[in-house]
Structures are given as C-alpha cells and as structure tokens.
Design goal:
By secondary structure, this protein is mainly beta. It has helices at residues 5-8, 30-33, and strands at 23-28, 41-47, 52-56, 63-69, 71-76, 79-84, 88-91, 97-101, 107-113.
Length: 114
C-alpha cells in the first residue's frame, strides 16, 4: 500500500495536550485503511522553531521516528541527544520521551507506532 502526499493534504493537524504551540501532527490509522496492519499509527509531524512535543510515554506502543528535516533535542528516559535530518529514534514502550525544535527551520519527522 502506498499513501501519497496528496492524500495527507486532507488530514487535519491534531490537537494534543503534549504539544506546544506550533506543532502540527497529521496522523493516519493504517488499521482503518488496511485490515490486519501491524502499525497502530503513522504520523507526519512538523515543529516550528522553539516548539516541542512535551514529555510523555506510550504504555502500549513502541515508536520509531525518522527525522526528515531540521534540528532538535530528543530526550529519552532523561537523556538529551541532539538530532537532525537522517537520524532514526527508536523508543521502547513505556519510556518517557520528548522532542524540541532548537533550529531556525521546521523540525519534521515521521513517527510510526506499533
């Protein structure tokens, strides 16, 4: 299955209490599209400079993030690491994590939860 970028144009930005102002998360639920899909959620996330996804944990899902563009700081289990385009972040279920855009341009990543 291929989900084209133009299919995402009609997906609205999610509101989440873990997001600061300037975060847009467009989330698909693949199970709604393809029966038996192993992925819980697939999101395209954009953080404006200075914005953040605040600390939280997914108790039921692990998460893989692929940084598409920009720079930021990822905190996992209290450890801060600078991240940028091309980096992959693997977060085990139950681990607290956050990400902050520390750059001058949007920080864009794809998050896949399973």
């Amino acid at each position: 299955m291929i989900i084209r970028s133009d299919q995402m144009e009609n997906v609205t930005c999610a509101v989440n209490p873990n997001f600061t102002q300037g975060v847009c998360a467009k989330t698909l639920l693949p199970g709604d599209i393809l029966e038996g899909n192993p992925f819980g959620e697939v999101s395209w996330i954009e953080l404006e400079p200075g914005s953040a996804v605040n600390e939280h944990a997914h108790e039921e899902m692990s998460e893989l993030k692929v940084i598409v563009g920009g720079f930021g700081v990822c905190v996992e289990g209290g450890v801060s690491t600078e991240v940028g385009a091309g980096d992959v972040i693997l977060t085990e279920k139950g681990v607290t994590h956050s990400i902050l855009n520390t750059g001058k341009h949007p920080l864009v990543y794809v998050a896949i939860r399973s």
